[in-house]
Design a protein that fits this description.
The chain is 4% helix and 49% strand. The chain is built from 2 helices and 58 strands.
Length: 566
């Protein structure tokens, strides 16, 4: 499975960075100045009919040009093949009907600009709207560029700055969309007002734009596919910077979110949330090289959300690459009920959280404060490789069929292995200054702890409970305060080719201690204990094979245990 997602990762990197849906009119035309056609640029009267007349009379390829000034309108209707270019400000006239957004009525009676079943249009304008800035319905090959849309920041239930419904080939470039809706005032509630709202559409590009200070999301995507959000600054919005929601169409796929700055939005930087009952949906999504900071707060107070890089719920085939996250409220990456997720080369000052079902998670060459599995986690495979981490939280009772922790560094290593599934700790550098054991193995059948460098400054390095079975501790370098390895009657324990050094000062300074060993194997280990003390100690009856052991300092006391070997 991992080969497939690595291949998919390379394929996604080959995607274009911007403008995959650029469009202009098919035929070159003339530039029509509306002032030459009787439109008034500084009148308090409604100019809708005059401007509309110019558009309606224009031919395919023509550009209707509005020079500097202010043009008061109700709604301007777009015409296929006719471009709009405005140096002046197009603004709602007082006669325009002022609607209130609701789930039942998601479009207003008077958007500033309306494109209905039109195609091949370029739009560049400055607009001030009390409803939508631009509403595109069943329209195709529409380019919005070098535009600025300003909403009504006093409106409690605002419409979006730009909304598309059942559209394709839409590009939003080099534009500003802001102040659609009131600023969010409460940590646990918000109100409508989104910068860009993409509904049931496909092939949409939003790039090199600024989306800010809107009441709800910066960019909201619902029931749509092939959407890219690239090189934008999305900040100070009332919900997530980017949110992907799911409908019943099953079309949600092919997302590319890259090189954005996502700053001080009140919810997540990126929220991809599939609450349907179907199994984790393959969405073919790449999240790469975004920078996020300070998400998940309202007036300095924490909201329930605020993931630094992404929240992923019930989705699969998501690749998270080289993102940076600072001072966000919630986990850098939150993974719930997901399929295949790969994170590589990310940097964040907070944690990764994993919960419920998971097919496969691979985290490689990242830096996180911690990785936390929640108690109800049921995963098929988790592979942590070459990460720089603070800690790894493993609560009792989790299920991971294959858990590989390889070549990572842990600055606060504290592992509780009480789980179902195969566990391998290989080649890690683990430091622990707490008074809890570095590795506590209660239940982890066939666990393998190999070639690690472990420094446990105030506690035992490894403790094995009676319920542990078939654990192998091989080739590690261990320095430990108190007993380095303490075997409390586990079954079939193998301790082989380790170098174990005791740190003086603990209550019990054995390098290795076993109570009632149950078919224990000690072979080829090197011990540096405290001089003139028992470095290896067996307590009670049992069976052990001991061979080729090297005692550099300290002594061995095998008690009454039945010893075989040489």
């Amino acid at each position: 499975m991992i080969r497939n997602i690595q291949f998919f990762f390379l394929m996604l990197l080959a995607l274009p960075l911007a403008g995959f849906c650029q469009s202009d009119s098919l035929k070159p035309g003339k530039k029509i100045n509306v002032l030459d056609k009787g439109v008034l640029a500084a009148s308090e009267n409604d100019q809708t009919d005059a401007i509309q007349g110019v558009i309606d009379q224009a031919r395919e390829g023509d550009t209707v040009f509005l020079p500097k000034g202010t043009y008061l309108v109700r709604t301007i209707l777009l015409k296929s093949g006719v471009n709009i270019q405005s140096e002046g400000t197009i603004k709602h006239h007082e006669s325009a009907k002022d609607g209130q957004y609701s789930i039942e009525k998601q479009n207003s009676p008077n958007p500033l600009i309306l494109g209905q079943e039109v195609r091949n249009i370029s739009i560049s304008l400055k607009g001030e709207s009390k409803n939508e800035g631009i509403y595109l319905l069943k329209s195709h090959q529409i380019r919005i560029y070098d535009s600025e849309l300003t909403g009504d920041s006093t409106k409690l239930r605002a419409y979006p700055g730009i909304m598309t419904f059942q559209c394709s080939g839409v590009e939003i470039a080099n534009s500003k969309i802001h102040h659609f809706g009131m600023p969010r005032a409460e940590t646990h509630s918000y109100q409508p007002g989104t910068g860009v709202r993409i509904l049931s559409s496909n092939t949409v590009s939003i790039h090199d734009s600024e989306v800010y200070q809107n009441g709800e999301n910066g960019v909201f995507i619902h029931g749509s596919r092939k959407v890219e959000v690239l090189n934008n600054v999305i900040h100070h919005n009332g919900m997530s910077g980017i949110q992907v929601a799911f409908g019943d169409s099953g079309k949600e796929k092919d997302y590319y979110f890259s090189h954005n700055v996502l700053d001080e939005n009140a919810s997540d930087a990126i929220d991809i949330n599939n609450r349907s009952k179907e199994k984790a949906k393959d969405i073919a999504c790449l999240i790469t090289e975004n920078i996020t900071c300070g998400n998940g707060f309202v007036k300095g107070e924490s909201t329930p959300d605020g993931s630094g890089i992404a929240t992923l719920i019930n989705v699969s085939n998501v690749l998270i690459y080289k993102n940076e996250a600072y001072r966000n409220n919630r986990p850098a990456i939150y993974v719930e009920s997901c399929g295949v997720i790969l994170g590589k080369g990310n940097w964040a000052d907070n944690q990764v959280e994993i919960t419920l079902d998971l097919d496969e998670l691979v985290l490689e060459e990242n830096r996180f404060s911690s990785i936390n599995l929640i108690a109800n986690t049921k995963a098929q495979k988790i592979h942590l490789k070459s990460n720089e981490l603070g800690s790894l939280s493993l609560p009792n009772g989790i299920q991971v069929e294959e858990f590989i922790v390889e070549n990572n560094s842990f600055s606060h290593g504290n592992f509780n292995l009480n789980l179902e599934g195969k566990v391998e700790l290989i080649g890690n550098k683990i430091e622990n200054s707490s008074k809890n054991p570095t590795i506590l193995i209660t239940k982890a059948d066939n666990a393998r702890i190999e070639n690690n460098e472990i420094l446990s400054q105030n506690s035992s390095a490894v403790i094995l409970r009676k319920t542990a079975k078939n654990v192998q501790i091989i080739g590690n370098q261990i320095k430990s305060f108190n007993t380095a390895i303490f075997d409390d009657n586990s079954k079939e324990l193998v301790v082989k080719n380790n170098k174990v050094t005791s740190i003086a000062g603990g209550k019990e300074n054995q390098a290795f201690r076993s109570h009632y060993p149950d078919n224990l194997i000690l072979e080829g280990n090197e011990y540096r204990g405290i001089a003139n003390t028992e470095t290896v100690l067996f307590v009670g009856k049992g069976k052990a094979s001991v061979s080729n052991e090297k005692m550099v300092t300290g002594t061995a006391n095998y008690g009454v245990v039945d010893i075989s070997g040489n």
